[in-house]
Here is the input.
Amino acid sequence: MKVGVYSLGCKVNTYESEFVIHQLKTHGYEIAPFSDVCDVYIINTCTVTNTSDIKSRKIIHQAIKRNKDACIVVMGCFIQANLDYYEDGVDIVLGNQDKSKLVSLLDEYFQKKKPIRRVYRQLDTTFEDMFIPYFEDRTRAFVKIQDGCENFCSYCIIPFVRGKCRSKRKEEVIKEITSLIANGFSEIVLTGIHTGNYGRDLGLDFATLLKEIVLIKGLKRLRISSIEITELTDEVLALLQDYPVIVDHLHVPLQSGSDRILKAMNRKYDTKYFKDKIMQIRKIRPQISITTDVIVGFPGETDDLWQETLETIRTIHFSKVHVFPYSRRTGTVAARMDEQVDPLVKKARTKELLALSKELEETYFQQFLNQEVEVLIEKSHDGYSYGHTGNYLPIKLKGIYLSQTYVKGVIYRISYPYCEMEEEHTLIGVN
Here is the structure.
């Protein structure tokens, strides 16, 4: 039986979808491209913005249209945000629980041919354990260590659809990473909805987990998918200083460079705190890549406050900015705020910030001109190989190398969006 799986949104969704794929293959299902005519379609949805909702609905409709006789499974955050969701042609509806039970739910559906609906309010849920020994078609492996968020930023729907913070047991995290390394993955990405909050429900903290992970034999790169500035504690920074296995890249959401807007967003810091912490990090890792998220056009963001944000971003010198036009989400505090920003203003500001991000990214790349770097190869075609360094420089080099190969060489040219490596380079090996 052929199954097509489509995952929208964040790395947590990617991880959960990969788990579902692994379970399906274990139970004899054939995984096929989502564009094929399949017997089952599974859509793991996102609801972080209005655009995410629109795209989720679009993908669902495409699956129904492609094969009206297929079993259509819709799950994830879009469902959790729309508890009364109903669509003709959708057979199994799940929220953000019971994704690990999908194989048995498919068995039940094919036996009874009756629609199944498993959507619970995300109040007192526990961590849903998943274990992935291998990732298909990926160079780096994700490990979901945490779920849920309790920050309740005024713009964000995610705490309502992902529930309270809960964590994977430390022993299970170590076991999963060890298994992935044994299966050929030398770069691990720790991910969660609020990753840096890991362990609070277990009487631990994030640094305690990191202390054990960095000692795992065979781990070459450890990447943190995203972490709040307030969670880069002295203990975490000490590990950053002592263990080069933690890569030279941190993604730290800023969201706004205006203190007034940060307060309205219910963020837990001001711009001075953010800048001071970044300076502290760069004393430890001078060439670290620090990327960020910024929301454009939050309610009350005047032209002057927007200029404050641009100036803050320039001062911090991020290596890249991920830009998100503010999306009004029903049920959040910000949706009820006055002074909603005109869509045309948001569009103009988005364009301005994207241009600044490109400028900052190119400036960061220039630091590494004529420097030797090590790249993990991800793909090859047309006589060239492509991959990323630990600090996430996108590298292009001549020659065909296998995925999971490490190659060392000198960057001789910046040809945005790539840093190009000299033809004289050294094969480090395959993990």
The domain at 249-367 is CATH 3.30.750.200 (Transcription Regulator spoIIAA). The mean pLDDT is 96.
